[in-house]
Amino acid sequence: MTNFGNLKSESGVKALNDYLGDKSYVEGFAPSQADVTIYEGLGSAPSAKFSHALRWYSHISSFGGEKSKFPGQKGAPVKASAPAPPPAADDDDDDVDLFGSDSEDDAEADRVREERLAAYAAKKAAKPGPIAKSQVLLDCKPWDDETDMKAMEDAVRTISMDGLVWGASKLAPLAFGIMKLSILCTVEDAKVSIDDLSEKIQEFEDFVQSVDVAAFNKV
């Protein structure tokens, strides 16, 4: 179905997880039928160890019946990032032609994708609707039991982004006497990427060892 391989196998889910490591959607910057195709191909939520795929799956699930209104053609092949085929050892001319062909195909695919995104954006602008928001519970884990958790929370709350509102927080046991900071935030989906937000939190490397998405719900 796609370059992700068999989505019912662990290797297929891993390929999808790796692909979504720095992306919010399968194609472009808005949900499309490409997401629905992969979503239905999975059949069920990925395990927690595939955090990027699970985050994406939960997000797509939150749209419910609205998924049928996503732009694009359902079931169309989705082109995932993949290594270029190895060059033939005995024919340099063929190598050049092969890469040239791939480049042309990629350029055409990019052009079509940009046209679809522009059309989708124009449609949304012409018909304003409710602002899509999500409530996210983030688990911020310290390095050890000597980390100043109050200072960690104060640092996290200094992060300011258009479309981001911080909510309640609490300390919860992690392991071996170490506590984690569980903090709620509400984000506008079109403005705030949870991946980007998590990266900003992890920049406080004196306090934060890692950040996990504990819960993700539409509001």
From TrEMBL:
InterPro entries, sorted: eEF-1beta-like_sf (IPR036219), EF-1_beta_acid_region_euk (IPR018940), EF1B_bsu/dsu (IPR049720), EF1B_bsu/dsu_GNE (IPR014038), Glutathione-S-Trfase_C_sf (IPR036282), Transl_elong_EF1B/ribsomal_bS6 (IPR014717), Transl_elong_EF1B_B/D_CS (IPR001326)
Keywords: Elongation factor, Protein biosynthesis
GO cellular component terms attached to this protein's record: cytosol; eukaryotic translation elongation factor 1 complex
Pfam families attached to this UniProt entry: EF-1_beta_acid, EF1_GNE
Skewed-composition ranges (Acidic residues): 89-108
A GO MF term: guanyl-nucleotide exchange factor activity
Matches recorded under SMART domains: EF-1_beta_acid, EF1_GNE
Residues covered by region (Disordered): 68-110
Residue stretches making up the Translation elongation factor EF1B beta/delta subunit guanine nucleotide exchange domain: 133-219
Domain Elongation factor 1 beta central acidic region eukaryote: 98-124
Protein family membership: Belongs to the EF-1-beta/EF-1-delta family.
Functional summary from the UniProt entry: Catalytic subunit of the guanine nucleotide exchange factor (GEF) (eEF1B subcomplex) of the eukaryotic elongation factor 1 complex (eEF1). Stimulates the exchange of GDP for GTP on elongation factor 1A (eEF1A), probably by displacing GDP from the nucleotide binding pocket in eEF1A.
Quaternary assembly: EF-1 is composed of 4 subunits: alpha, beta, delta, and gamma. EF-1 is composed of 4 subunits: alpha, beta (alpha subunit of the eEF1B subcomplex), delta (beta subunit of the eEF1B subcomplex), and gamma (gamma subunit of the eEF1B subcomplex). Interacts with elongation factor EEF1A1.
PANTHER family: EF-HAND AND COILED-COIL DOMAIN-CONTAINING FAMILY MEMBER, ELONGATION FACTOR 1-BETA
Name by which UniProt lists this protein: Elongation factor 1-beta
